[in-house]
Amino acid sequence: MQEIVLEAQGLTKQYNGFVAVDGLDLTIRQGEVFGLLGPNGAGKTTTILMLLGLSEPTAGSVRVLGFDPARQPLSVKARVGYLPEQLGFYDNLTARENLIYTARLNGLSREVAYRRIEEALAQVRLQDVADRRVSTFSRGMRQRLGVADVLLKHPRLVIMDEPTQGLDPEAAREFLEIIRQLSADGITVMLSSHLLHQVQAVCDRVGLFYQGSMVLEGTVEELARSVLGSAYRVRLEVAGPDRLEDMLRQLDGVVSVHRPAPTVYELEATSDLRAAAARAVVEAGGDLLSLEVELPSLDDIYAQYFHQSDGSDAQTDAGGRS
Amino acid sequence: MDVSVSKSNRWTRASGRYRREGSPWTGLWAVVAKEMADHLTSVRMSILEILTVLTATGTVYVAAQNLRQTVAQDRFLFLKLFTTAQDPLPAFVGFLGFLVPLIAIALSFDAVNGEFNRRTISRILAQPIYRDALLLGKFLAGLFTMALILTTIWLLIIGLGIMTLGVPPSAEEVARSLWFLLLTIFYGGIWLALGMLCSILFRQPATAALASISTWLFFTIFWGMLASLLAQALTPERGDLITQALTQVRLEIALGRFSPNTLYAEAALAMLQPSVRSLGLVLPFQLQGALLGAPLPLDQSIMLTWPHLTGLIAATILLFALGYVIFQRREIRA
Predict the structure, then answer these.
(1) Are residues A73 and A30 in the same domain?
(2) Which of B1, B22, B118 faces A10 most closely, judged by CB atoms?
């Protein structure tokens, strides 16, 4: 087992009687990319602020890299990078000047600071615009500058709050690439998002956050299995004999069979049934035109989960999920 | 929940710390340097600097023209540069009385809410520094900037004085005007701390600026009237008419000193006009045996204005502390 980087137990935060985070338990290990997923207002940002010692927990305990953020905030903040949701820079300064200020706040010596600034700018590919004012930067460039800002302190853990929000698809893709790069460099990453497919693209493990508590936690596959009951969807296009449903339904591990179009069958299964399904079709005398398996997307899990919980509390804001 | 709390205590004990680690001033000088650089390069400051320098040059030049005829008749010719008024221009001290608050408020009204509005606050506080360092750093940067401007102007006036009057200032004049400079800087400190407090209280810089300027206007224009009304209402109807009148005047003076403007004006007067012997009410019999018009020695003038300086500094610290407490408790979540 890898070393535990972050551990929260019974973490609770109340604002004037309103419970923003309710008894959260969370463990993140070295080298993971963990996605904190949930609709807006689920308490993700509050949780992150408490993990960093920027907000005092009402109850519960947190250990980050072995430090208590409430008591040893300087040790925590010297080792943990934070990319806030609302990322701001001093617009009248250049990118480099902004980074110099951060380096000085981190107490880096001049030579170390200059070397790290060059490295960080290179890593996020902003060397060419380093001496331009930040006011001229696009949102994607600012976000990358934010990563450079975080990298200056050579963090062991980076926490990102909605890092891809407001980025166009190309910039978001580039940004996810940067996150993968960080992970490859051995940095543990925790990110929050409500954009499911992006979390799915980079995260090893996902926690589903809802109304202040972690309702589900695990890999995307595990989540799929526990919410949807089946993790694989096999799609077959078949020419030939009709009525293959019954035969397909008898395969081992099939949960359900749909027939959205006359020649298309969709199997929901607990394992990858492509080979068995293909054999069954051929044995039944059919011609297999196409065969594909799709992993359930987090969107499905999400929709399914909130569909289930909507029964009890109907006020779930659909708008927040978009 | 109880379990987790006791666990947290154990952790705390295990690491041997009940208090916050490290110095609250970690990173203070980084903040001061950055904020001062911002102040000194900002357009806002350039405008105020030009305004102040023009005012200083104008009033001092006019005063010098006026004083030229009286050379050798006055021991404290240089100090007169600060206090001589020539219609329609008021004396330089009078100008400073409202320019300093203006500069101080301009330096501080968006200190904290500006960080919130630029959304830099969470990024800065995620660096290994405490909020203490950020707030004090911003305050010190403002104070140093103001000290820098005022000292420059002070040097400018001394230089102009030597050029136009043709005599160098005496040691006592230099000492008195330096004390006056110190008073002026801390007079600015109050307004700086006020502007900062408003920038913590109000999210909008415009609201903060308006609130600070209203407070300043209140003390400049209305407090004097209010003090006399209050004194009238609060004086007990006891004893003969003279005692009553005396009590009322004393009360009015005391109330008036709640205004930083009054404190500053009185102290400046006592420092720059050595013939001022008292800042309170002086009755004719108290003057018996006094050499009227004879200047007070430097140490006596300092004694006279000591309460004023400590008052200005105390008010500055009080306002800063108030802002500090509010800022520490603020959730940084926008």
Answers:
(1) yes
(2) B1
